[in-house]
Write a structure and sequence with these properties.
65 residues; mainly alpha
């Protein structure tokens, strides 16, 4: 998915924006951004989604340590 594609402009971005501003808690907002980011990157190359999830988990754990 490209930033200039019709799918991004008229479906993905409005849904993300709506969900983000409806939620009040920052943890839920962060989760929404994380999920939509993964969906966005998986749309272009889905075979690397497992790698991205693993990097996110390891980065989070090492950040806490």
């Amino acid at each position: 998915m490209l930033f200039s594609s019709l799918t991004f402009l008229f479906a993905f971005l409005p849904i993300l924006t709506l969900l983000y501003f409806i939620c009040r808690k920052i943890k839920i907002k962060n989760a929404i951004l994380l999920i939509f980011s993964l969906v966005f990157y998986a749309w272009g190359e889905p075979k690397y989604i497992i790698l991205m999830i693993l990097v996110i988990i390891f980065s989070y754990i090492f950040g806490l340590l």
